[in-house]
Amino acid sequence: MKIKWAEKVLAFFRDFTLTIIVMIVTTISGALFRYMGFTESNIVMIYILGVVVAARYTNAYQWGIMASVLGVAMFNYFFTEPYFTFSAHSREYPITFTTMLTVALITSALTAKIKQEAKDSKEKERYAEQLYKVNQRLLMARNFEEIKTVIAVSLADLLGKSVVLYTVNIDNRLESPLVYQVGEQHAVSRFINSDETVCANYAVETQKKVISEKSKLCYIPIIGKEKVLGVAAIEYLIIEEMTKELKNLMDATVVQAALVLEREEIMIKQKNSEITVQSERLKNNMLRAISHDIRTPLTGIVGSASTLLNHPGRVNAAKKHALLTGIYEDAMWLIHSVENILNITRIDDGRLTIHKTMELAEEIIESVMIQINKRTYVQTIKINIEETMLFVPMDANLIVHVLYNLVDNALKYTPANATIMINAFKEETNCVFEVSDNGVGIAEKDLPYIFDKFYRASLGNIEQRSGMGLGLAICQSIIDVHGGQIKAYNSPNGGAVFRFTLPIEEGEVYGK
Amino acid sequence: MESKSLILVVEDDRPIRNFICVSLETEGYHYIETHTGKSAISLIASHNPDVVILDLGLPDIDGLEVIKKVRDWFRAKIIVVSARGQEREKVEALDAGADDFLTKPFSIGELMARIRVALRHVESSRSTDGTSAQEFKVGGLEIDYVKRRVYVDCQEVHLTPIEYNILTLMSQNAGKVLTHNFILKKIWGSFSENDTKSLRVFMASIRRKLEKEPAQPRYILTEVGVGYRLAEE
Predict the structure, then answer these.
(1) A-B C-beta contacts closer than 8 Å
(2) According to the model, what pLDDT value does residue A40 have?
(3) Architecture, CATH, for domain A357-503
């Protein structure tokens, strides 16, 4: 306030001096005209010019009036008989003075008005430009957080005041606000506390401006088509004191903010529904595939069991054993498949929260081998762990699942005399796990699709039932949430290689 | 064996209960069965079984509750049965006093092996009565508690004091899963989450000294996410 007052005084002196100087210069020019023998009317004209100049270059219309009065007075004093007095002899002078004063007043008023209009239009242009800028920045904002920041910064820039911006989420609740302070920095608790939340909520409910006595924030609701989208709280904002243009500009910014927030909310809703549709479709596909694949082993189990139940005496020991083995194997296959299905639904739901702990690579491989060794296989498995203490952050059970799937695949797709290698080693900041074999490798046409859901390799041991084509898709999802990479390729020496990496450095990607 | 061992089966799924009971019968054990946690507690109190096979997911009260309620006065062995993916529950149950666990789906062979381990522990705790054994032997692994020496296939293995303490602790609980927290508490007295890493380093080092092929160990078995077990057979 002090500064403003000083500014006013300064402007007053500037305008005052300017007016006096202009009038003195005019009088000297008048004297020059008189000396050169010009008529009085020219001197009148030069005074009117002086008034116009004074009105043009001073900041308030009073100075034009003062210049007019001063001009007439000086003309009277210096240039009418008797000279250097305020009296005039000729009867024409009163008319001359009146006309001169009227013309001077009108001209100065007009000049002042033109100037004001120019100033107004300049201001309007500035506002329009600002609004355009705000608009531009809002359009550039790529996500919700950016939009929030742009709104808060724009309002703060526009008004030169601190802004606290609340947004309303999809569940119609206020989210924790964004504080953007201008000038003197306060503790955030001044703007965010239970009292202020009450004010913000009140503004949302009533859709009206609310002023907080404590923090001096003025809460302005950002109203969209259907609901209140947020609240912009501005410090020390007194709407009655604002110029009409500034208020319009502020309102326009708030409207812009509402539009953009609304757009963003619609987009999020749309995205969510798209995701729902997609996962719905996937679920249907999966159900179809699963019900088909499950029916086969179930038929086997039911058939074998009913044979054993209905003909207890007639089935010989060897046949009985074969039937029971069939039941056992089918059931084991179902167990493994159900495990895969469970994992993939957890991953696709986005519900899979991975719990990372530091694990030793050799312990992980050991657990996989315990599971693998429970079944019968004819191939040779070799394990090679390069480093003694290879600690890797991971969700142990999920990685065991991945490795089990890879080894299981290798056993499924390689001939009896094959050797399967499990390697673990460190490479830069990653731990690499590799499952390779010296079998026939992966068919070129299968390679690009091998990690797709429900894709099955065209070649396999015909004797064995193949999986549901989910195993590798799950492996990929699991490695993805760990922030690693998985790939499959054919080794130049023949045979397939499945390789995945896990970052050893903590903190890169955490469970989504 | 004059007095047959008594086993209590607590499982709410009838087919699973059936096959467990049938297998127990064919192996010559006595058994009693129930499908609720509350009746399990009263059966434990009235019959004092040697081994309890306890499913964690029961219709009335959680299996974990049953363990907490009976552990103070019930000395016999509790084998917990849980579904895959319930690692945390498993660890909780073990820390609450369960002796072993089985993950569904399990085979009868596994179940019987665990029951044998449990019964052997019941017997040895009855017979020795405080006087501790002088040595431990499984496969080629030998521990001489008196001289504090360890042999593998008659070759002496040099362990650091902490490594020896860990191995002794495991051998005294051979066949049983020891959780990370349990081992840390017993060896170092206290523990924090970060210490499990140093425990693993010790385990890996012991393993390197005892095992021919550390990734396919013969003696020290890892239970991922839970702890370690020393093989007993």
Answers:
(1) 56
(2) 81
(3) 2-Layer Sandwich (3.30)
